[in-house]
Predict the 3D structure of the following.
Amino acid sequence: MSEAIPFHQTVRRSTLEAHQRANHSPFMDALFDGRLAVADYARLVEQYSFVYGALESVSDAMTDDPVAGPFVHDTLRRGSRIAEDLAFFGVTDPEPLPATTRYAARIREVADWPGGFVAHHYTRYLGDVAGGQAVAALLPRRYGVVGGGTAFYDFSALGPVPRFREHYRALLDAAPWDDTERGRVVDEVRRAYDLNIAVFHDLWDRAEPAAA
Ligand code: HEM
């Protein structure tokens, strides 16, 4: 009998450890403890402008791909929301940190590999739709950010989140990848987590004086 574990579960289980590391990187821990300055959070959004710039330009290129295309939804696009949040925080000239440049470069590198693109798409968007909501709640509560700054986390246009996640997981399960390709996709998700962790690391280096 062939193994019955749906691919979405394999992805999730194989990357739980990486998720924990991302989640508990010093920058994230400090963010959740309310130990950062609002400017440090704004610098994270600045980094997003480059990451999503890359992700969404590759999304455009993937729209007609039979496997990756169905993952691309206009309602997921974050570019204009990131711009809105940056304007709210008064950031006029976003600058990428070195790890952000490496992350965006890797996303562009997989522009001709549908599985690689899906790995990066999954790591960001599914994370934003799920755990990102905790950050949206945190900003007003711990940082007094009100009247804006959280457009990035608004996925209400997607409809009910559980339904969207089911749809997304079904797409992962239906992708016609053999075991080798599935293994490569999982490896790329791990790599995507590591690239995110590296961005948090660079952010933490910059934030430390305010956090100390
Ligand atoms: C402190 C920050 C974070 C919190 C509190 C958090 C929390 C969560 C929660 C509660 C879920 C839902 C789990 C479930 O329903 O099964 C989730 C899923 C997810 N998170 Fe995070 N997360 C954080 C950071 C991150 C980061 C930095 C990334 C990647 C860049 C990420 C990527 C994901 C992904 C891809 C999923 C979907 C897993 C799946 O269902 O396959 N998360 N997160």
Remarks:
- Residues 11-211 form a domain with the Heme Oxygenase; Chain A fold (CATH 1.20.910.10).
- The chain has one domain: 11-211.
- DSSP finds ten helices and no strands in the chain.
